[in-house]
Amino acid sequence: MNWTDVGVNLTASSLLPQAADVLAAACAADVRRCVLIGTSLQTSVQASELANAFAGCISTAGVHPHDAAEVSQQHPDFIRQLHALAQLPQVRAIGECGLDYNRNYSPPDIQRNVFAAQLELAVELQLPVYLHEREAIGDQLTILDRYLDRLPAAIAHCFTGTSYELAAYQERGLYIGVTGWVCDERRGAELQAAVPNIAPDKLLLETDAPYLMPRNIRPRPKTRNNTPANIPWVAEQVAALRQVSVAELALQTTANAQRLFGAWEAADAS
Fold first, then answer.
1. What's the pLDDT at 85?
2. Domains located in the chain, CATH noted
3. Which residues bind a divalent metal cation 2 (predicted)?
């Protein structure tokens, strides 16, 4: 089977020094394609460099809502910089961008401005948007709706919401990324209930590594750092919830990822 992990924070300090080993382990687990997430100007550059260096990887370029205030103050030309970065063939989406009112590391008004600017860029470049949202669904949808009919595609990255939020995203044709949150018996009940309702042609799998370690891994790992090699554990839970085979899920989610991001080099010959 070939798996695709559409959400890897390989630039995180716990993964970056061992990036080659992380990706080799992923390949050994049949995770042949990875999307490396950019969350700031710096990590977007790093993600693009890693995607250029390692087969089977592509990247995104964007500013996370947590970093919205900093980029606005220190890099008022951030859209120009993202525009230049997005010319690279390995950069396939704008984001991770969106709104996060859970902690408000950046003031909401600045988050909204930075989000809208990135949506405008995605429209200009005709690239998909890679979306983040926490406790901001109303404002997120209001802003997204202004651009949606001009965007080629969008993904709700690391979806952990309710069936109501899923319906709102699916009405808008979004792809839905499911992480190890679905394996969490403490927090994942609402997501578990929503997963069977995700449209087959919009379902994607991701780890959000190094975060959200799947809690169904046996034996339990000694490290707290999640890696893309753990996608099969996410898949096992999703397949059970959707009552499909793991093999069918692998084919379906990889095809969806390629439709969203375009084809990319991977070890397809195995």
1. 98
2. 3-261 (3.20.20.140)
3. 132, 157
- Asked if residue 165 belongs to a known ligand binding site, the reply is no
Determine if residue 206 is labeled as part of a ligand binding site: no
Q: How far apart are CA 182 and CA 166, in angstroms?
A: 14
Is there a binding annotation on residue 135? no
| Per-position b or e across 157-188, b if 16+ CB within 10 A of its CB | bbbbbeeebbebbbeeebbbbbbbbbbbeeeb
The DSSP element (H or E) to which 33 belongs, if any, is: strand 31-36
Q: What is the C-alpha separation between 219 and 265, in angstroms, rounded? A: 32
Evaluate if pTM is beyond 0.70: yes
Which amino acid, residue 62? Answer: G
Per-residue pLDDT reduced to its tens digit, 170-216 = 999 999 999 999 999 999 999 999 999 999 999 999 999 999 999 99
| 75 belongs to an annotated ligand binding site | no
Distance separating alpha carbons of residues 94 and 39, to the nearest angstrom? 10
